[in-house]
Amino acid sequence: MNDMLGGERVLRVNWLPGSDRLVGRCHCGAETEAEDPVQMWEWLLAHPDHSAGGAGSPDPVGELPPPPAHVITDPAVVRSRTPVLV
Amino acid sequence: MTSIVRNQWYVAAYGREVGRELFSRTVCGESILFWRTEAGDVTAMSDRCVHRRFPLSQAPSHLVGDAVVCGYHGFTYGADGGCVAVPGQTRVPRTARLKAYPVVEQDSFVWVFIGEAEKAEVTAIPRAPWLDQEGWTTVSGMEPLAARASLLVDNLMDLSHETYLHGGYIGTPEVAETPITTEVDDEAGIVYVSRHMADAECPPFYATSTGLQGRITRWQDIEFVPPCLYKLHSRIAPVGSVPNPDGTDPDAFHVEVVYAITPETESSTHDFWAVARDFALDDEGVSAFLRENNRTVVLQDVVALDVLEQVLAGEPDGYQELSINIDTGGLAARRLIARLAGEGAGVAPAVGR
After folding, report:
1. Which residues of A touch B186 (CB under 8 A)?
2. Nearest 5°: phi and psi at B182?
C-alpha cells in the first residue's frame, strides 16, 4: 500500500500480507520487524537510538504461570447470573 | 489524575442545536451555556450565575435581546459573560462576570476551547469540511455514552470489531481478516490507519445506500486528529476499480464518517457522529436509511462501551491488557493523546468521575 501521510516525521508500521509480522519504518530510514505492536512502537519511538537488536523477541517458550483471577473491587459491578435449570 | 486533555478545541454541539433558547452542555466537566445573539453569533459562557449558582439554562432564566437574565434573582449578563445589571442597586460588582469560552462555528459543529483561553488562537481546530460542503449530503446525531472517551477512541481506531459487534450492518468477515497499515505523523499529530479490501462482501449499510450488488472494493482510511476528531474516509467501488491518476474517482462511492469525541466527564462522553456522502445527494430515502443504520451501529457501540466502563470502574487499577496487530493504530492514538495531556496539564480543575 502506498504511503498516505506525506510529512517529514512519519512513522510507519505495515502488517506483512499473509503473515503475522509487522514491519516498522522510522522517518530516518531505520527498519525492523516484530510480532508485537507495543514493542514495535517502543522501538520506533526510541529514534534516534533504535535498538540494534530489533523490536523485541518472540514469546519465550516454556511453561507460563497460571493466568490471574479477574478481581472485582466494586460489588455493584458483579455481573448478574442466571441460575442453571436442571 | 484527570484523563481529559485540556487546552484543546472540542465539539460542544451541532450548530442547529443552538438558537435563541438557552442551551446547556457539560464539556470536559465544565457546565457551559450556549445561545445565539440577535445577529446569529454563538456565545459560550459558564452556566452558573455568580450570585447563588443558579443554572442560567434553567427556566425561568431567559434571554432579553443579547443578554441572559438569571431566573432566580435577575442578575443579567451580556454576550461576553460580563454582568450588566443586578437587582436593587446601580453598582455592579467587578467580580460579577461569567467565564466566557472561545467559540467557533465550523463544519456544522460548535467548537469550544477548554483550557486557558489565550491559547485558543494558536491551537488548530480540526477540519471535517464535507459536513457542510456543496456536493455532499450529511446525516448526523449525538448519542450519550456512559463511558470514558478513551474507550470510544480504542473502539474507532480498530475497525476489526465491525465483524463481531456490527455484523449484518457494516461488518463482514473481510474487515477482521485484512491487514492494516498504520502511519503516525508526529509533527502534525495525526494517526492514519488504512485497510484496503480489494474483493469483499458488501455489507447491507453500503449495498442498500449505493445499490452495488455482489463483491466490492472497500477501502477504510482512518484519519484521527487527537484528542477528539475521528474521520473514516470510506471508499466503496466495483471490484477492480481504482482512482484515476489525477485523483478523480468516478466509479466509486465516497462516504466520510466523522466522529467528534467530547468528554462530558471523566467517565462519560458525547458521541457525535456524522455520515457524509457524495452520491444520491437528494435521495431522502438514502438519507433516512443511513441515519437509522448508523445510529443503530453507534448504539451497538454505546451498549458495549457502557458495559466496559462499568467493568473497568469496578476493577483494581493496573489491570493487564493484551495488544495484537489490530491494535497498532489504537496504541498510536493513545500515545499522542497522552502527549497532549502532558502538554495541557497543570491547570486541570478537579472533575468527578
Report:
1. 9-11
2. -120, 135
CB pairs under 8 A between A and B: 83
Measured between beta carbons, the chain A residues lying within 8 angstroms of B313 are 74, 77
User: One-letter amino acid identity for B218?
Assistant: R
**What is B8-119's CATH topology?**
Rieske Iron-sulfur Protein (2.102.10)
User: pLDDT by residue (tens digit) across B59-108?
Assistant: 999 999 999 999 999 999 999 999 999 999 999 999 999 999 999 999 99
Tell whether B177 lies on the interface with A, counting CB pairs under 8 A.
Answer: no
Is residue B267 less than 8 Å (CB to CB) from chain A? no
Q: Which CATH number fits domain B129-344: 3.40.50.720, 3.30.750.24, 3.40.190.170, 3.90.380.10?
A: 3.90.380.10
What's the gap in Å between the CA of B207 and the closest CA on chain A? Answer: 26
Contact B325 A4 (CB under 8 A): no
Q: Do B181 and A13 touch (CB under 8 A)?
A: yes
Q: How many CB atoms lie within 10 A of CB B134?
A: 5
The answer to whether residue B352 scores a pLDDT higher than 50 is no
> How high is the ipTM of this complex?
0.83
Residue B351 has what pLDDT?
39
Residue identified by cell 473497568 is B312
C-alpha dist (Å) from residue B227 to A8, B120, B178, B186, B262: 22, 15, 27, 14, 9
Closest in B179, B183, B316 to A11, CB measured: B183
User: Maximum CA pair distance of chain A?
Assistant: 66
Phi, psi (deg, nearest 5) at residue B153: -60, -50
pLDDT tens, residue by residue, B228-239? 999 999 999 999
